[in-house]
Fold this protein.
Amino acid sequence: IDAAPTLLLFIEGIPLKYYGERKSDAITFFIELKAKPHVKELKELDLVKAEKESLGRRCMFIGDNKEALKIYGNVARQINEFTFFSTSEKIGKKAFQKLDTFPAIVLLRDFDENEIVFTGKLTNERPVSYTHLRAHETSLHLVCRLLLETK
């Protein structure tokens, strides 16, 4: 492909824009990457605790609401700056003992020891970039805006 048309991949009704090279192998790689699940389920408490201690930007969905988890997965496909995980409410309560409202999303970052928690309503809207939010927002609103705001 030599021209520069806009290429969009729709997954669950969410448009994902392709910015890569206009070559078939690059486009195929993009489609395969975005089509696979972007949320790793952690089914054991030890795995959740290990992830809490690891490095990098991580986001953890905690709860048993399948519809909210599906939305979380759709949003995860749109963000490259984080690794996304999920766990059940039962395991999440043990790993994050201060949580009392579910579903919840916990943002974990190695540069900031504070866990940021969001327990509001999830939508499929395209999030703004993490970098943009970090420059303008306090940590209390970061997860909410990261996962919910549109450009």
